[in-house]
Amino acid sequence: MKFFRSLFFKYIRFFVTGLAVLLVVESGALIYVETSVLQEKTDVKVQVVSQKATVKPADLNIFLDSTAQKVKVSYNGEYLAYTAGDGGSLEVIDLTNGKKTQIPMAQDMNLSYYKWVYDRDQLIIAETSNGDLDYAKLYNLDADDLTSNSEPTEIRNTVQNTAAEIPLASKSSTISGMDFSTSTVTTYLKITGKNSHSILWKFNVPDENEAYSSITVKNIGNIQCLKNESELLYEDLDNGRVCVAGQGSIKVDGKTQFRLLGFDGADNVYLAGGSSGTTDTVYYGSIVSDDGNGNMTVNLNPDMQKISLSQPANVDDIYVTMSGGIYVDDSVNDTFTNIVTNKAISYHGSVECFYGNGFITVENGEILQNSFE
What we know:
The chain is an all-beta fold.
């Protein structure tokens, strides 16, 4: 079942009947609804534990190309995507059997960015034109249906049945960030051009294909969206803030300086305190609430849980799982430590990428699967 096409008929019924109902994902969707492990608001001091709980990596006997770059894994750890060298072809490996498939680009288009959907084995690919006009298009690849002749399917405006071209300022513009919500059929893009200036773009299959014109910030960092609501969060690196697109910046306990860590399956937002590359505090909680009439509204001053780390950690070394686990990578000792339970998980090789509740490492070229659970 294709990522966008599967929800097309739901939108048609919406327009025909005129019913004001929320679009929901079909019963086969794998939206996570697990809540976070912490239940009360408190400052937690994390202590180093001497014993390590080791998770044995899956014995895949599958090896990664030595030229592989931009390695990304599907939500359940079954498929691995990468580019073969700088500007090389896009490859997908089935980690259940080792089969590798080269993915072709559309005619007169170049690979710009790709990312796995967070709740199914589908890869969304952004390609940019190499002709006279400067634009990007989105394509969907269903990894479960891969064959040697597989080609990504162009994502189109399903109401008008037209190509959905995303205009670019110049040839130097690239897609540098992406996230999506399957429940709202929306893809969000960060487009970066000259002087590393970026804009944010919203693409919704039925009818939306436009920039966030009200956002004047140009130095944009990480972007992520809520999975069950139509809200995009982004890092304003100029001012050291985390903002909700079109609404303003988040403020917690009187503080406004944060970095965006991620989300869990219950749409809790995870923030690192401070605007630098290191932090000693993690905040998490929901930023949406019901107004009493069934309408969800954004709260820019949310009441969040707070966790104090025993020692500062690099923001890039903190990972949030879909079930709400918060782990810090210690690359010197090859361990991930849960900052709540103190449970440490050892691994072998170098960490390449993450999936729902696990991560991929590569040791001497061999791909290893590791679980946080």
